[in-house]
C-alpha cells in the first residue's frame, strides 16, 4: 500500500513530517452522516479507537499512526492536495502526533 510504504520510508529517513495528500480535506468521524465531524488533531491511540474504511481513509490513518508512533513528537498530516499549505501549517487537514492530549475537531 502506498500510504504504508510512504510512512515506512519517511520513518527510515528520520523525517520530521509525513504528509499524506488525498482528495478529502481531513479525516472525518461518521463520514457522510449528518453528525460527521472533521478531526483537527489526535494521538495515534485516540484515533485508533475509531474505524475508517479500508478502501479509503483506513490505510491513511494507519500509516499516519505508524509514523507518529515510530517518530514520537513528529507530525503525520492527512489532507487535501490542493490545500497542502494549510495542512502543513496545521490549520487544515488532520494532524496525528503522540503529544496530542485530546481529540480536537475543526469548527
Any overview of this molecule?
This protein has 107 residues and is of the alpha/beta class. Helix content is 33%, strand content 24%. The protein has four helices and six strands. Strands 1, 2, 3, 4, 5 and 6 form a six-stranded mixed β-sheet that branches. Strand 2 and strand 3 form a beta hairpin.
CA gyration radius, whole angstroms: 12 Å
Structural class, by secondary structure, is alpha/beta
User: Stretches where pLDDT falls below 50 for ≥5 residues?
Assistant: none
What string gives the helices and strands in order? HEEEHHEHEE
Q: Note the main sheet.
A: 6 strands, mixed
Strand content: 15-25%
How many angstroms does the end-to-end distance come to? 32 Å
What's the total number of strands?
A: 6
User: Average pLDDT, to the nearest integer?
Assistant: 95
Instruction: Give the helix level as a range of percent.
Output: 25-40%
Number of H- or I-type helical stretches: 4
Short description:
This protein has helices at 2-12, 44-47, 57-70, 84-89; strands spanning 17-22, 27-29, 37-42, 75-80, 94-96, 104-105. It has 107 residues and is α/β, with parallel strands linked by helices. α1 (2-12) runs parallel beside α3.
Amino acid at each position: 500500500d502506498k500510504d504504508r510504504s510512504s510512512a515506512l520510508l519517511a520513518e527510515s529517513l528520520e523525517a520530521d513530517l509525513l504528509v499524506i495528500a488525498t482528495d478529502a480535506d481531513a479525516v472525518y468521524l461518521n463520514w457522510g452522516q449528518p453528525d460527521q465531524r472533521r478531526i483537527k488533531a489526535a494521538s495515534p491511540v485516540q484515533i485508533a479507537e475509531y474505524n475508517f474504511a479500508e478502501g479509503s481513509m483506513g490505510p491513511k490513518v494507519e500509516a499516519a499512526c505508524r509514523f507518529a508512533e515510530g517518530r514520537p513528537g513528529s507530525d503525520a498530516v492527512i489532507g487535501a492536495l490542493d490545500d497542502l499549505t494549510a495542512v502543513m501549517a496545521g490549520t487544515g487537514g488532520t494532524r496525528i502526533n503522540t503529544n496530542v492530549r485530546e481529540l480536537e475537531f475543526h469548527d
